[in-house]
Write the structure tokens for this entry.
Amino acid sequence: MSIPDFDLVILGAGPAGCTLALKLAPLGIRIAIFEKDIFPREKICGDALSGKVMNILKRLPGDAYADFLRDVKKVPSRGIRFVAPNLKVADIPFSLHDTPEQPAPGYICTRRNFDTFLFDRLSAYSNIEIFQGEKAIRAEQVDDGIQVYSETRRVQGRLLAGADGAHSLVRKFMHPEVAGKKHFCVGIRAYFDQVTNLHPENFIELIFLKTLLPGYFWIFPSAGGRVNAGLGLRQDKLPGRKENMSALFLRLIKNDPFLAPRFKNASQISKTESHILPLGTYHLRRSGNRTLLLGDAAFLVDPFSGEGIGNAMASGEIAADIFLQCFNAGLFTDTLLQNYDLRIHRRFSNEFKTSAMMQKLANSSLLFNFVVNKARKSNEIRNMLTAMFSNEDLRKSLVRPGFYLKGMGRGVWSDE
Ligand SMILES: Cc1cc2nc3c(=O)[nH]c(=O)nc-3n(C[C@H](O)[C@H](O)[C@H](O)COP(=O)(O)OP(=O)(O)OC[C@H]3O[C@@H](n4cnc5c(N)ncnc54)[C@H](O)[C@@H]3O)c2cc1C
């Protein structure tokens, strides 16, 4: 029996896999996608889409950004509300140039809606074959490609993309060793109705309760007056806790002095569910054996914010470039694929280093209280923090002690 043959086999039709397929399909690359679930499907997430996601949508073929703005149910979000351990609040807009007439810099959109939007766009291309509801169970290198098996079929690709999420089969195939717990975060979330005191412009809310540092509780406003509320903690911080995360989450909602009044009349309208986030602090080779790892499979979640959707899509764009170089050259060597590691390093390493430092700093409630107190009182500091969302060099300065000392010299950190 002949084995169906493709240029590229992709495991996983989340944001990483779909972005990769949408970039390559218009160029005639023959693609097979295995997706274990059937769309529309749920994905445990906070549902916050950053400006990074919007920028990548703008670069996808076929007016994806305009279609997203027009067709997808979502709420616009224009900034972040930080709640410091002393429960003081600072509101930081995402952009200094944002106006209500413009599309928002970010959105909150359930993953059921966002991922289905991306997935549905694959059907525009007859050169993409999708095996939905088929979990890939094995990948094997052969002389002239990679063979992938599900329970019911086997296909062969010249190249393979592991976009199969946090528990990636492809990553286990490339790297049987397991990363340490400090490189994972555990996130838990549920949807609620009737939570009170939300920001009027849907700022997403990060609540740094002292007992959770450097993790945080989040409240993200969602469509239909609902909220996505959750809790993220580094996995190595868990064992010391006497209660499990689900119990901790419910206890905070019921008893925490900041949260309880806001959830007093709220009703929970979904199950409480958890999932892991592989953090960008872990270093691994993301290329080799005719294969690239993308998104969560490649440990690309921001270590401070937990943002992973934009990074997953960015890795899909970079992987598309590298695979194309291979197809054009007719070469599938590790040397050529290693350019992916270089590009990922260039794209993310500074950002992740800064975020890892911020994660460390967030351990100090004193410093957190200090920055939020000052941001409450000073326009200059609020504007500076806003600029940091879009400027990596500025963000880097936040983790240098000199930044605070210099600011004091210039009076930036003194009270108005
Ligand atoms: C609680 C929580 C909150 C989060 N909040 C946010 C947030 O607000 N904003 C943000 O940007 N990020 C957030 N993240 C991170 C974000 O969810 C991920 O980084 C993002 O989904 C990664 O995209 P991906 O395409 O790499 O993987 P995924 O979205 O996980 O997609 C992988 C796909 O592969 C499929 N698959 C898996 N194994 C197989 C297999 N063997 N065969 C076939 N198919 C397979 C899965 O069904 C899935 O569809 C959060 C994560 C968690 C857990």
Observations:
- The pocket of flavin-adenine dinucleotide is lined by residues 11-17, 34-37, 43-48, 135-136, 163-165, 169, 187, 189, 230, 275, 277, 295-296, 301, 306-310, 312 (CB under 6 Å).
- The longest strand covers residues 184-193.
- The mean pLDDT is 91.
